[in-house]
Design brief:
alpha/beta, Rossmann fold, seven-stranded mixed β-sheet, two-stranded antiparallel ribbon
Length: 205
């Protein structure tokens, strides 16, 4: 019996991002893409002390927005190429190379951002990673992340490189959030008709 395709592993995704890092940085460094949702997430924060950016890329717009709001920022990514640019763009910060599947911390956060990052993880890790991020939240902490309005793993080509995507869909994401004592506060298909979903969830006290 053939084995079902579940997506690209994080090392493969990191290598693809390494190859497009310079182009991605040039395209996104001055962009406001996603900032409306990040602003909305920040406004929902009960406290604005600690933040985690999962898949921070080369930094830029989201890192700047978190710094503007005086968050003490932890930023991680698995692409060495992206992290090298992040360190150039934000020399005052420390960035950590980390795979969110394996990464652990005793810190807890008032805000966690995973913008266009965890949807790349293999299908079997979607729920465990969302659960992990929920567990990293302080009471009343806010999680904002993106995923696909579809179910199942697939590959696509972007900037000449292959990337894996493994959505579990809206209903499953909402189920996982609720199971982790987190309430959906805002959800939208923010690039309709593309299957791109952004969601803000709040951990209950």
């Amino acid at each position: 019996m053939p084995v079902a395709y579940t997506g690209m592993n994080p090392s493969q995704i990191a290598k693809s991002y390494d190859k497009i890092a310079s182009q991605w940085n040039a395209d996104m460094i001055g962009s406001d893409y996603g900032i409306t949702m990040i602003d909305r997430a920040i406004k929902n924060c009960a406290e604005k002390k600690t933040a985690l950016d999962v898949g921070c890329g080369s930094g830029g717009r989201i890192v700047n927005k978190l710094l503007e709001n005086a968050f003490n920022l932890t930023a991680i990514d698995f692409s060495e190429g992206m992290l090298a640019l992040a360190k150039q763009n934000h020399p005052q910060l420390t960035f950590e190379k980390a795979d969110i599947i394996e990464w652990e911390t005793d810190d807890r956060f008032d805000l966690i951002v995973a913008w266009d990052s965890i949807f790349h993880l293999p299908l079997e890790f979607q729920e465990p990673v969302v659960r992990k991020l929920c567990n990293f939240l302080n009471p009343l902490g806010i999680l904002v992340y993106t995923f696909g309005d579809a179910v199942g793993a697939h590959e696509d080509t972007w900037l000449g490189e292959k990337f894996g995507y493994s959505p579990i869909g809206i209903d499953e994401n909402l189920r996982v959030l609720a199971a982790c004592n987190c309430q959906c506060r805002h959800l939208e298909l923010d690039q309709y008709p593309q299957n791109h979903v952004s969601v803000i969830a709040r951990k209950n006290s």
